[in-house]
Design brief:
Blueprint lengths: L1 H55 L3 H26 L7 H25 L4 H55 L2 H4 L8 H13 L5 H11 L30
Helix pairs in contact: 1-2, 2-3, 2-4, 3-4, 6-7
C-alpha cells in the first residue's frame, strides 16, 4: 500500500509540474502575441501620422515626415525579406548581421528626425535637413541593396529548382513511354516504291538486276506474322526436365 501511495503521489506531482509548464508556456505565448499586436498597432499609428503630416504640413515639417516614413518603410521591408528567406538559406546569416549593424544607424537617424520634428526653430530644421537627407539615402540604399540581393537569390534558386524538376519529369515521362523506343516500325518497300527504284538501277548500268530483283520480289511468298516452331527444334531450358519413359527405373 505504501508503494502504491508513493507511485500515486509521484504521478500527481508529475501531472502538476506538466500543468504548470503548460500554463507558463501558454502565458508566454499570449504575452508575445499581445506584444506583437501592440507593436504592430503602434507602428501603424505612427506610419499613418507621418503620412498625414507629409501631406498636411508643407515645407520642412512635411519633408522630415517624408524622410522618416521612407526610412522606416525601407528598413521594415528589408527586415521582413531577410527573416523570411533566412530559414531556407543559411548563407543569409552574414546579410542578417550586416542588416543588424545597419539598423543601429537607422534607429539613430530616426531618433534625430524625431527630435527635429519637435524643434520649434524652423531655420535650424531647414539647416539640418540636407545632412539628414543624405544619411537617410545612404541607409535606405544599403537596405534596398540587401533586400533586392536576397530576393534575386531566392528567385534564382526557384528557377534552378524548376529547371531540374522539369528535366526529371521529362525523363520520367520518357521512361513511362518506353514502348515508343522499343518498338520502332521499319517501313517495308511497297510495289510502287520498288517499281520506282527499278528504272534508276537500270540507268546506272545495272539493267539486268532490275527485272531479276522484281521477279525475285514477286516470287517470294508472303510470310505469316507469327511462325510456329517445330517441336524437334524447340530449345530446352534449364528448368525443364525431360520426361522419362514409364519403363525407365
Amino acid at each position: 500500500m505504501e508503494a502504491v501511495a508513493v507511485i500515486v503521489a509521484l504521478m500527481f506531482a508529475v501531472f502538476v509540474a506538466l500543468g504548470v509548464i503548460a500554463v507558463v508556456r501558454s502565458v508566454r505565448a499570449v504575452k508575445r502575441g499581445v506584444d506583437r499586436t501592440v507593436t504592430q498597432a503602434r507602428r501603424t499609428v505612427e506610419d499613418t501620422r507621418l503620412k498625414a503630416k507629409q501631406y498636411v504640413q508643407p515645407g520642412a515639417p512635411g519633408e522630415v515626415a517624408e524622410l522618416r516614413l521612407s526610412l522606416r518603410t525601407s528598413m521594415r521591408a528589408t527586415q521582413e525579406a531577410l527573416r523570411a528567406a533566412a530559414p531556407d538559406d543559411p548563407s543569409l546569416s552574414e546579410a542578417l548581421a550586416l542588416f543588424k549593424r545597419l539598423s543601429t544607424h537607422g534607429q539613430e537617424i530616426d531618433a534625430d528626425l524625431k527630435r527635429l520634428e519637435a524643434e520649434p526653430d524652423k531655420a535650424r530644421v531647414a539647416g539640418s535637413l540636407p545632412e539628414l537627407r543624405e544619411r537617410v539615402e545612404r541607409v535606405t540604399h544599403s537596405a534596398d541593396s540587401l533586400r533586392w540581393a536576397a530576393q534575386d537569390r531566392a528567385r534564382q534558386f526557384a528557377d534552378d529548382d524548376l529547371a531540374l524538376l522539369s528535366e526529371q519529369i521529362r525523363m520520367e515521362a520518357g521512361a513511362l513511354r518506353h514502348w515508343t523506343t522499343e518498338e520502332e516500325p521499319q517501313a517495308a518497300p511497297t510495289g510502287a516504291g520498288a517499281g520506282a527504284r527499278t528504272p534508276g538501277a537500270g540507268s546506272t548500268g545495272g539493267g539486268a538486276e532490275g527485272p531479276e530483283a522484281a521477279t525475285t520480289a514477286g516470287a517470294e511468298p508472303e510470310r505469316p506474322a507469327i511462325t510456329a516452331r517445330d517441336a524437334w527444334r524447340q530449345p530446352g531450358y534449364s528448368w525443364q526436365k525431360t520426361r522419362r519413359p514409364e519403363s525407365t527405373t
